[in-house]
Amino acid sequence: MKRKVLIIVWLLLINFAYSQGCSDAGICTINKGFQQGEITFKNNLEISAIYSLGEADLVYVSPYVSYTKRFNKRYSFTAKVTFSSASGSFGTRSQFGDAFLLGNYVFKENNNRQWSALLGFKFPFTASNLKINGYSLPLDYQSSLGTIDVFVGTNYQYKKWNFNLALQLPVINLNKNSYFSEYAGTDDFPSTNLFQRQPDALIRATYTIQTVNKRISFKPNLLFIYHLGEDSFENIFGQREQIKGSDGLTINGNFLASYKLTGQSQIELSLAAPFEVRTIRPDGLTRSFVAGLQYQYSF
Amino acid sequence: MKANFLSIFFLIFVSCQEEGILTQQREITTLSPSAQLKYSGLFEPTSGITVSGLAKLYWDQNQHTVSLEGFSISDGPDLKVYLSKSDAPTQFVNLGNLTHQTVYPIPVGVQIEEYSHVLIHCQQYNHLFAIAELQQN
């Protein structure tokens, strides 16, 4: 038995080490915005620290703070602020990322089936043009994509299964990134000067396993993200250029394990890695491995 | 206790930067003694901007380059050096960020006869800072 567990862990680690491309402009963690389960408390505070590996030699530490207010059995509202610190050959750049505002409505449950709907907005704290020593940085080093986005989504819960469907639409582009690979001294990252990003569509399937006392739960899930068009940038001649291969499918595997510390608090460990990635990933959202630790407190 | 908490919060969340191999201050590039001057022009400021110096266009080591000589300009957040077809940033070659460097190579294949100005332009706020009209030498 012990040997089987070790083999499974080893296979998972091999997979994490050689996969690429967990795309997340906020949409990866959108399922957190869907209100689920019994409502015991009206307020929920969540603090999270995420460690991840990106393109080339990039390492990220990305904490966030999230607060959810449940007005009644149906309505809830979530506010979330992200921060990102990226380290690699360009150096280390740290900054606040985005603010998320999400509203959620839960429909009446019917024979173990329940729908909910979500509407949200993302506001960037930067124009995605952070520099070091005056040198422009690729989007991989930026804490935000510099777009105001709208989220629309729905969640369907049936017994132990949970399905999310969501769209993330950049509606106002404030991106002023000025990175040119021609002038950077490396070709690890594509040019993203005055980057324009296309929308994403998401489908996620989650299965929940709980221990008898419901103290520990496991939520393995599979996440499909389709980038609905080719992104573009302005080249050195001032001409807008499509980035071929920047559209397409990303498939991520995600494993969540949570443990209830008390009736009001729990910790959650999440591990994620991609199985399928887009050919070109100029938005800097690529992660080969993600490990997150969250602490939730309800009151 | 409260002060400690605030200090930790500040250290974690403050915006910060640290240079890496690719963002260290690079050595100043200089022109070779055999560089041939082709065009030059005096920088003129736009409203509210202070600028001085010349833009000179050389043929140097099989490549055209723009050299900023005796140059200084008001601070700006995202200043770029453009080789432009007019005195407005509409048709141009973006030669990169304005840094401590004075020499900006022009990409191979650019027909320099078609370009008449060197501009200093703030891309992030789309504000033109300075214009140098090039005259043939």
Largest interface: A-B, 35 and 30 residues
**CA-based shape of chain A:** globular
Query: How many helices of chain A?
Result: 1
- Computed over alpha carbons, the radius of gyration of chain A is 19 Å
The CATH class designation of chain A is Mainly Beta
CATH topology term of chain A: Porin
The CA-CA distance between the termini of chain B, in Å, is 70 Å
Overall domain count of chain A: 1
Helix content of chain B: under 10%
Under the CATH scheme, which architecture of chain A would be assigned? Beta Barrel
| Straight-line distance between termini of chain A | 41 Å
Kindly state the number of beta strands of chain A. 18
β-strand amount of chain A: over 45%
The radius of gyration computed from the alpha-carbon positions of chain B, rounded to a whole number of angstroms, is 19 Å
**Estimated helix fraction of chain A:** under 10%
Question: Which spans of chain A have pLDDT < 50 for at least 5 consecutive residues?
Answer: 5-24
Beta strand count of chain B? 10
Structural class designation of chain A: mainly beta
Mean pLDDT of chain A: 88
Overview of this protein structure:
The complex is a heterodimer of chains A (299) and B (137). Chain A is mostly beta strands. Chain A has a single domain, classed as Porin. Helices cover 6% and strands 52% of the residues of chain A. In chain A, strands 1, 2, 3, 4, 5, 6, 9, 10, 11, 12, 13, 16, 17 and 18 form a 14-stranded antiparallel β-sheet that branches. In chain A, strands 7-8 form a two-stranded antiparallel sheet. Mean pLDDT of chain A is 88; it is low at 5-24. Chain B has 137 residues and is mainly beta. Chain B has one domain (35-136). In chain B, 9% of the residues lie in helices and 47% in strands. Chain B contains one helix and ten strands. In chain B, strands 2, 3, 4, 5, 6, 7, 8, 9 and 10 form a nine-stranded antiparallel β-sheet that branches. In chain B, strand 5 and strand 6 form a beta hairpin. Chain B starts with a helix and ends with a strand. The chains are: A mainly beta (299), B mainly beta (137). Chain A binds chain B through residues 63, 83, 87-96, 127, 129-137, 176, 178, 180, 182-186, 193-194, 236-238, and chain B through 12-25, 78, 80, 89-97, 99-100, 107, 123-124. Strand 5 (91-106) of chain A pairs antiparallel with strand 1 (16-19) of chain B.
